[in-house]
Every structure is written in structure tokens, then in C-alpha cells.
Predict the 3D structure of the following.
Amino acid sequence: MANIQDYTSGKILSQAKLALRLLKFVSIPIIGNLIVKKLLEEIKLFEPKLIDIEVASAIIQKSKTCAVGERACKALHKNSKFTETVFLDELADELVGVEKAKYVTKHEAIATLKKYKNPIILSKVGNNSFEICRSTPKECVYWNFERRGLKCLIKEFS
């Protein structure tokens, strides 16, 4: 499972890049099955959920701290559309500490998510922190899994 240090160090980017590369091999007999199994094991640790703004707002309201920063996949796809991610609690604190995010109020965090129309994905990072991302389906690791028939997103709407 990715942890907070993976986000602060940038290791999460190399993990995402590797996952996207490995997806190209899932249709190869035998090897593809092994790759699928391992990828799904790893991705499910994030407990990715497709949520709506109401669910996102409720999660933000329950958090201790909020920060906003560029979504991780943007760094892998420089020409992709800019959207922002909301980071909560310890993940927020640590990303602000390495200048990858800035603190915002809960109201500002919700307003940030409302600025964009992209699908919202909630990911668990470590044991108690969350990332709420306005994903870009073309670049997002989760959406790439889904397009390959590897179901990983749980739908949770209010």
C-alpha cells in the first residue's frame, strides 16, 4: 500500500507509471494473468471509490486538516488538463511540509472540488489519510484499470 512517505518523496509517481506500463501486458496469456492479479492486489489497498460532491463534502467536514495540490497523474502527463486534489489529515500536513500542497479551510477544499467537472475519486493513503481527486479519466490509473476490464472503483454516492 502506498503510504504518506510515497507521496512526499514522489515514489507514488513511479508506482503509477509502472502500473500504467504493466497494464499493456495484461492480455498476454499466462503472464497477463499474473500481472492482473498483482496489480489488483496493489490497487485495492487504496480502496478507490468513485464518489459525488456530497460524499466528498461530508468526508472533508469530518477531517482535521485539508490541503490542496496538483493531482499526481498530472506530473506523469504534462499536457493533460489541470485539476486539483484535496488531501486530508496527516497526508495534508506532510504534503504541505514538502511544499507539494497548501493548507485550505474545509470550505475552500469543497470549493476547489466544485471548480471542476471531472469524476471525483477517493483514495486511502496509509491507515487514516485520504486523497480526493478530480480525476482525468484518460490519465488516471484507476480509470485505465477500468477500461482494461479490471474493476477497481467502488461507487459510493449520496
Remarks:
- The mean pLDDT is 93.
- Residues 31-44 form the longest helix (14 residues).
- Strands lie at 49-51, 66-70, 84-88, 102-104, 120-125, 129-134, 154-156.
